[in-house]
Amino acid sequence: MPSARTLVHKFNDLKTLPHVAIRVTQLVNSESANMKDFEEIIKLDPILVVRLLKLVNSPYFGLVNKVESISKAVVYVGMKNLRNLVAIEAIRNLFQERDDYGFSRRQLWQHSATVAILSRMIAERIFGLAGEDEFLAGIIHDIGLIIEDQLVGQEVREVARLYGKGDKPITHYEDEVIETNHCKVGGMLVFDWNMPEAVVLAIKKHHDYDKAYPLPSITSILHIAEYIASRLNYGAIAGRHEPLPAYLTSHMKSRMADYKVLIKEFPAEMERAEELYRDKE
């Protein structure tokens, strides 16, 4: 079977991240970038321009006057929210190309969106963080499964079958059948995409339940979000719930009232996100 690096190389030969997405990510990570730099690259993608203006003029931002310029939109939205919008646009279609018995990309997209929103809510409401990097990690954390499905789809369905009736993390069955797993593959891909180091680590370790990661690291927040998502029946693969390490169980118990409110308000946040990011105008 191919290695994780081989899968990433083959995937990049088939599906490259759009130039605009790569440049926006680079600009966000650059200390010298300015609004003009963002405007110059964003205007190369008309669909992105439409979605950016739709986002900034939505009730979410509550602006009195309509924003019609790219530069003003970037100022209001913020560079990291812009990066997240670009990431969603870049990968959205990958989750819609293949959907059959045993493994559903549409279900995986729903899972990823759920984990992204929960990650942002946890970061903001439990830990007082901005939540943009946590959202990004959530939306792309299972991109490795898409790569595997694209290149070794039959094996992925065997993994799904074993995982559905087993009691071990999905990475255990991937390592047995594919001889690598989506955490390794996804981690390599987003590293190549120049994503933030903490996001790369979270993607590599989001099924590593044996190690305690600091709170509030993106990795630990992603673990909590995946656990809640699976309990809400938004798992990556139907029929399985993600485990929660003991140290995170203790943390959730200590903040149970806050988490109950968060879960209660999740559907409204999900609906708002669907309105902002849905694939239609």
| Overall form | globular
Task: Let me know the average pLDDT.
Answer: 88
Q: In whole angstroms, how far apart are the ends?
A: 42 Å
The low-pLDDT segments are none
Output the strand order for the largest sheet: 1-2
Radius of gyration: 19 Å
Q: Structural class of the secondary elements?
A: mainly alpha
Strand content: under 5%
The number of E-state strands comes to 2
Counting copies of identical and different chains, the oligomeric state is single chain
> What helical percentage do the residues reach?
55-70%
Question: Count the helices. How many?
Answer: 16
- Biggest sheet overview: 2 strands, antiparallel
Element pattern in H and E:
HHHHHHEEHHHHHHHHHH
Q: Could you explain how this protein is built, in words?
A:
It is built from 16 helices and 2 strands. With 281 residues, the protein is mainly alpha-helical. The N and C termini lie far apart (42 Å). The model has no long low-confidence stretch (mean pLDDT 88). Strand 1 (99-100) and strand 2 form a beta hairpin. The chain has a two-stranded antiparallel ribbon with strand order 1-2. Helix 10 crosses helix 11. The chain has helices at residues 4-14, 19-28, 35-42, 46-56, 70-77, 79-91, 105-126, 132-140, 143-151, 153-165, 170-177, 182-192, 197-205, 218-231, 246-254, 256-277, and strands at residues 99-100, 103-104.
